[in-house]
Amino acid sequence: MARQRKSTEAQHPAPPVEGEPEKRRAILHAALKVFAERGYHGCRIADVAGEAGVAYGLVYHYFRNKDELLESVFDEQWRIFLGAIRSIADGPGSAPEQIASVIRFAMDVFRTAPAAVRVLILEVPRSPDVVRAGSTRQTFETAMRLIAEMVQRGQREGDLRTDLEPLVAAASVLGVLDMNLAGMLTGLLTSPQPTEEDLEKMKRQVVAAALGAVLPPGSPS
Amino acid sequence: MARQRKSTEAQHPAPPVEGEPEKRRAILHAALKVFAERGYHGCRIADVAGEAGVAYGLVYHYFRNKDELLESVFDEQWRIFLGAIRSIADGPGSAPEQIASVIRFAMDVFRTAPAAVRVLILEVPRSPDVVRAGSTRQTFETAMRLIAEMVQRGQREGDLRTDLEPLVAAASVLGVLDMNLAGMLTGLLTSPQPTEEDLEKMKRQVVAAALGAVLPPGSPS
Amino acid sequence: MARQRKSTEAQHPAPPVEGEPEKRRAILHAALKVFAERGYHGCRIADVAGEAGVAYGLVYHYFRNKDELLESVFDEQWRIFLGAIRSIADGPGSAPEQIASVIRFAMDVFRTAPAAVRVLILEVPRSPDVVRAGSTRQTFETAMRLIAEMVQRGQREGDLRTDLEPLVAAASVLGVLDMNLAGMLTGLLTSPQPTEEDLEKMKRQVVAAALGAVLPPGSPS
Amino acid sequence: MARQRKSTEAQHPAPPVEGEPEKRRAILHAALKVFAERGYHGCRIADVAGEAGVAYGLVYHYFRNKDELLESVFDEQWRIFLGAIRSIADGPGSAPEQIASVIRFAMDVFRTAPAAVRVLILEVPRSPDVVRAGSTRQTFETAMRLIAEMVQRGQREGDLRTDLEPLVAAASVLGVLDMNLAGMLTGLLTSPQPTEEDLEKMKRQVVAAALGAVLPPGSPS
DNA sequence: TATGAATGAGAGTTCATTCAT
DNA sequence: CATGAATGAACTCTCATTCAT
Q1: D97 CB contacts (<8 Å, ≥6 apart)?
Q2: Which residue ranges form the domains of chain C, and what is each CATH number?
């Protein structure tokens, strides 16, 4: 299982798939960048091709159409995130510790690849139905369900509060993560180019808030 | 002071401003609906005009262009939400109680006007920069700051945990709310047309999760 | 004959017709101004109404449509010019002297009402066929023919060269006038706001050039 | 020096620039025709594309927008005229002879390419400011200045009257040419499809009139 | 593979004109 | 007379997609 990643370290840019044409990678990479900068509708095929240093028509050689291109971008990014979640879930630690790891992973990725995070956080849930309904939607739900399973285990083991349905708890954890990342991206919570120290402080707080939402009311932090 | 609203009950559709032309209202109302259904880019002026039962050009009689129209929609919806938050902040109750009231208000609005919520939650951040950067952005930040002030008071009075910066705490509360609403809108957390009972249950859980994120670790629910 | 003008002095703005509604005049006056500033296609009914300080629809009360409005503007201005030419033609003086008077009159008008000249010189031929084909065209041709008649008399009386057909001679005279006025309007021949002295010098030269075109080759200036 | 033209013969349609895409030429050619027929505002991009037998969007592949397209048409036509003037100026002959050549050249072009002349004479000075202010304006002024330089030489050499400023003299020459061409175009001076003989007669007369405007008063024709 | 010319449906915007008051 | 809301046809420009080379 070459794609299985055991480490939870942020890994960007995406893993080079052996045998994948170099220009295809370039296009995908450019798409991520342009997409992050301009959003789904503001990003034109011409921009992507230009950014990739590739001819117009080549994009259509590798991708059926715009939607497929962008869905590929989503998928790739999510696959990475999903892989990390799976690794964490399969690894050791109590449910709260695993949830904290997931949050930390996401915050770490933000440090090295804010563009990717911007796409995942801000654009995914806001793309047209074609994309939303496709594999991306499924992938997003998968992430949610993986977290929900963690929660379920935590509830069984008495580490997490039981008055929240697992999916609601998972949504709450991801919501805390999402909105804080959005706040960082838009410069509301940190300066647009935060220092390492800023990021560490944010990481601690976001972990604390996310766990607070799902820990049993009387439990110590 | 007719505009001052003391109740936190959901109030939709938007208050009729006296002297405002009826057709302008119709256009605004139609825009909200079409916008919620199709998103910013999927919604064409022709659709709005059609939905409002009004001639194409009239939209341009009342609004300079598409951006301004949609910004007006945003503003109106946010103003309502903001008004509610202000009323709650100015009213009685401890910080945690006030925060719970804000969440409950938003969940109540969802019951009566899911389209409005869909627009606020899913569409606002995906809109083009013109809109994002305009008054909408400001309005959103204002909401965040109002919650942050509530948090600050709660921290002073010993009701809320002090290890979170107020803005981070506010982002976390809104994140929990946002992601759960998004989950309801997309049918992930509830059926697309949830029953009253479903909604009540969701409301309780979301309030619990949001408060959990900001209450002191050892405090009872 | 109140409209018959014996003097060749520039008379602007146009003569108030008794019984003509004041607002109609205002509209006509505004149309001349806006038209001169923005040209036929750049001039919108809204601009004219705004400039006249009058409601939108009132323009359509007094004029059937845009073409008729602008044709009225043309007509009025040309009627003035035509009236002057007729006065001159009916008055004393040899053909060359009369032609010189026509040129001087036009140059004088430019001094007091450049907007009117701009419309007559630059806008008439660029207008849509409806206008060109209408009374304006006729009026323009009338002016040409009046000059041609002057030329004819001059040829009979031995004051003007006979190797030019009268209409060609007339076109040449008007051409010299037209292009020099255009050069003044665009700032190519004089500064955009020429002094009195500049204008006097231009007047002398234009008269000299125009006459040169039609005088017999060997005649003294 | 392929582009250098020593002959003053009318050369239309425009010279094929090697390496220029065929369809670009077709569009430019169609634009000249449609433009001449309908004028700047009456000519729609769809018409041009249709006339060129080309898809709508291709026009925008080669030209940024309508203004740029039409400015290109202007420029090309003027460049040809300008080239001819330069050739004449650089060639032999006294100033009056050169001026006569310029007039004859223009009249010859009219015979072979009335559309081009219509555009240059009737449309250029009447286009929107964007165009007027662009390179076209400059080109027009260049033509004027070239003639003015001819005049200046003629004045120095005693062939032309000295009581006219060179630019005024140039404007007068071009004015005679312009108004007579306009008269021919509109059918006022000749039938709309004049015979060769008509044209020859017109040519002689226009040359005579134009020279008359600038020759010393007492000089023989 | 790779290129970029070519296509054309679609959307936003303008503005002359009408009409109820 | 006077107003300005209401209408909708027309036109420019964009951009995803195709295709010949």
Answers
A1: none
A2: 2-64 (1.10.10.60), 71-212 (1.10.357.10)
